[in-house]
Specification:
alpha/beta, 33% helix
């Protein structure tokens, strides 16, 4: 029996932040982007998303890494960096490789209990990154995680966080639908994630038509049986998932079900190890040589049947 479609409560209308130019008239649903893969140097244009390489984005704290030559050229190592690390900078690096923008949602909600960055300010910042840094492949929306400790911070419910996450996607698309916004699925149980798929659908958003959909509230339990079941179920629906913060244990179980993932685990690992031979710093937690070595070792550690189409540079 098909699932009943969940329609957001009408009171959720207060979540929508239409641009001032929309006042006084009803605006149609955001225009959907053409279903084509990003056209970036080193990444040939493909008409079928199923042929796109599954990418492992290397997380970094440092905006300058976007311009470092060892991540570009034939290697084309994809990077992931947070809006919190880019916001407010007078000058921005020019990227040599494609990259993913993390909105900094976890830090925002964990530290402040709410989003303090407006839709307009975030959209304007992403427009600047797109133009000045270039090669921005995906920009995560201002989503709302559903981990129990985050709900305790916001004093809210899973349903409310899901409604706010859908509203964020729509608000950002209304602001600027030419930017590569990546919708995000949130929940805690499998049924809640499926409900969130239906909530997007009720607003006219078919997640199977999106080039990438972020999967939230999973990274801290990614190797559990329940988490793998959630990933498998959403994958079987035809949703091209991006796994936020996936570590080696989670990737070994679910990498073949993800179209991409990102991780800063290399930095945390390096904090508790001696520096690599030849490195003069006290720890390699900010070392690009260590980061590349960790990424290659991580990818090669995955079961061979999980590595279909993986980009694993030598």
């Amino acid at each position: 029996m098909p699932r009943a479609r969940t329609v957001p409560d009408p009171s959720a209308a207060v979540l929508f932040d239409l641009p001032a130019s929309s006042a006084g008239h009803t605006k149609a649903a955001p225009r959907r982007r053409a279903r084509t893969a990003p056209r970036n140097p080193g990444r040939p244009h493909l008409d079928d998303y199923d042929d796109i390489e599954r990418d492992s984005y290397l997380g970094t704290h440092h905006p300058a890494w976007l311009a470092r030559p060892e991540f570009g050229g034939s290697r084309c190592i994809p990077l992931c960096i947070s809006h919190r690390r880019l916001a407010g900078r007078r000058t921005l690096p020019r990227a040599v490789t494609h990259w993913l923008l993390d909105s900094g949602a976890y830090s925002e909600l964990y530290l402040k209990g709410e989003w303090t960055v407006s839709t307009a300010d975030y959209a304007a910042a992403v427009r600047r990154y797109h133009e000045e840094i270039s090669l921005l492949e995906y920009a995560s929306i201002q989503d709302w995680m559903c981990e129990p400790h985050i709900l305790a911070k916001t004093r809210s419910t899973v349903y409310d966080h899901q409604a706010r996450t859908v509203a964020s996607y729509l608000n950002l698309m209304w602001r600027d639908d030419t930017l590569p916004w990546m919708p995000v699925l949130q929940g805690w149980t499998l049924d809640e994630y499926l409900r969130h798929v239906d909530m997007y659908a009720a607003m006219g958003i078919d997640l199977t038509a999106e080039p990438r959909v972020g999967l939230g509230s999973i990274c801290r339990r990614q190797s559990t049986r329940e988490a793998v079941r959630i990933v498998e179920t959403l994958h079987d629906l035809g949703i091209r998932l991006h796994g936020f913060g996936f570590k080696v244990t989670g990737l070994r179980s679910a990498h073949h079900l993800l179209y991409s993932s990102d991780s800063l685990a290399w930095s945390f690992s390096a904090r508790h190890q001696d520096p690599m031979p030849g490195c003069r710093h006290k720890a390699c937690s900010n070392c690009p040589v260590y980061a590349l070595t960790w990424r290659n070792r991580m990818l090669r550690s995955l079961p061979s049947w999980h590595q279909t189409s993986l980009h694993t540079p030598s």
